[in-house]
Every structure is written in C-alpha cells, then in structure tokens.
Amino acid sequence: MKKILFATTALALSAGAAAADVSFTGFGRFAYVYDDPDAGDSSTYLEQRLQLDILGTTETDGGLTLGGKFRTRSYDDGDANTTTNNGMNAGQMFVSAGGLKVEVGNVDGALDNMSYIGLGTIGISNFVSPISSFAYSSTGTTVDTGVAAIYSMGAFGAHVSYDSNIDKTDAVLSFTTAGYTFSIGGSDYDDDSEWTKLAASVGGELAGVDFGLGYANNGDAGDFYTAYGQFGIAAGTTIGAYLMYGDQDDNTGVGADIKYDLGGGAALKAGVYNDDDGTFADAGVQFNF
C-alpha cells in the first residue's frame, strides 16, 4: 500500500512539474558606504543585500498564462551593523494573454513603475525618485491588497493600479516613437497629502547618451523635476550624472556614478549624491543570477 501511494504521489508530482514552470532569479550586492546626513553625525558602514525571486507559471489549453511570485531579501540596517530577513514578502498572482496582464495582491503600482521619472540607483545602493505612491513591496509581509492592469500594443502602453485599502487609483499612459518614450500619469487621490498627483516623463537615447527627464507634482510636498544622463567612456565603463530639484524647499540634489562591467552579470559601481538632507556615497560590487 505504501509503495502504491508513493508511486501515485510521484506521478502527480512529475505531472505537475511537466505542466508548470518555476524559475529562480536574483541579485547580490555589497558596498562600503559613507553617510553624512545634514542633521546628525556622519558614519561609514558595510551595506549588503541578497535577493531571490521565485516565479511560477502555467499555461492553459486556451493560451492564458497564470502565475505567482514571491521575493525574499536579506538586507542590512545601515550603520546599526545588523542584517535582517523578514522571510517571504506578500505574494502577487497574475493572469496574462496577448498584451494584457492583470495582477492581484502585492501589485506593481502604476506611478511607481513609470519610465524615466526617477533617477534610479546612483552608485550601488542609493535609490532616488520623486514619486510618492503605493508600490510593490519587496519586504512587506502584510500589504494593502491591490489590483493592476498592464497593457501594451505596439508603441502604446497603459498601466492602471488600485489600492483597495485607501481607495486610490493610479494610471499611466506611454507612447514610444523614434526611440523616445513619452509618459504621463496621475492619481485620483484628492486628500491633502504628499503623494504624487500628476507626473510626466520622456527618455531614450540621444547621441550615445541614455537620458531621462521627469516631473512630479506631489501635492503638499510641491513640484519635483529630475534629469539624468548615462554614457559609455570606454569598453565596459559607463558614467552617469543626475539632478533633482524640489521647489517647495528649494532643494537641489546632484549626483554622479561610474560602473565597470565585469561580465557574467557582475559589475563594479561607485556613486555620490548630495542634497539638503546630506551626502551619501558608496562603492562596491553587484552581481545578477
């Protein structure tokens, strides 16, 4: 009886494995950081992060793709010199067909995923963006339940996301032509908050420079303007320059970084960023797998 049960279980497992696709991707990074806040003492510490993404998908006889994903991340706590792992984050499930994808759960926020609006990661660990809105949570085990629809057809793209807990909808439309992508987005959330109400961006490549220009109206926090450019200076070596301005506090942020491609998904990176909140600089290595 045990042998029969074992054989049946093995058959079921092998059948499931044949029908489904499970993939593992991720990245690791570690860097030496200098952090000098405007209010407080400067510090140096070792920053590190290791992330694993787990994606499972299956396809119906009618051609629908259904899937779900989790993420687990080990990360540092700044100059506290501690490392944290909260386990798996809140999951996301989705269904897609053709150019349409619908997500439920821990979804990708429309404004948060808008192209060319933010400065991205300067150096290896300093992420800078003017967008203030709900977003996919990489570490949160409890998040607001959301629904998102992402559609693309040729040069046209649309992304709508909804946060059911605060009844907030974000939407972004984009159009790509001649190698440039133009996007505009907004939110229906009308309270007196500092969340992004309206955003616009354009980006692409011009004369060998990858560039992005962005604008975001963040309600009570005022208007933000961003600009960046990245270009190669030698084989495998890229430098970038970054600028962000907030009109409410007349706060100007300026940054620069350099990246050297080691091959195999690995790179050496270093960067520095300064604004009214202080100066942040780092140097280290990142690898993807």
Automatic annotation (TrEMBL):
One GO CC annotation: membrane
Region forming the signal peptide: 1-19
MF annotations from Gene Ontology: porin activity
Keywords, comma-separated and alphabetical: Signal
Entries under InterPro entries matching the protein: Gram_neg_porin_domain, Porin_dom_sf
Pfam families noted in UniProt: Porin_4
Porin domain segment(s): 7-277
Identification of the protein by name: Porin
Species whose genome carries this gene: Pseudooceanicola albus
